[in-house]
Amino acid sequence: MIIAIDGPAASGKGTIARRLAAHYGLPHLDTGLLYRATAATLIAEGRDLYDEESAVSAARGLGLTDFNETTLRSRQMAEAASVVAAMPGVRAALIEAQRAFAARPGGAVLDGRDIGTVICPNATVKIFVTASAAARAQRRVVELANRSEKADYNAILADILRRDARDSERAAAPLRPADDAVQVDTTHLGIESAVAEALRIVEAARIRA
Question: What's the angle, vertex CA 98, arms to CA 31 and CA 156, rounded to 5?
Answer without folding.
Answer: 15
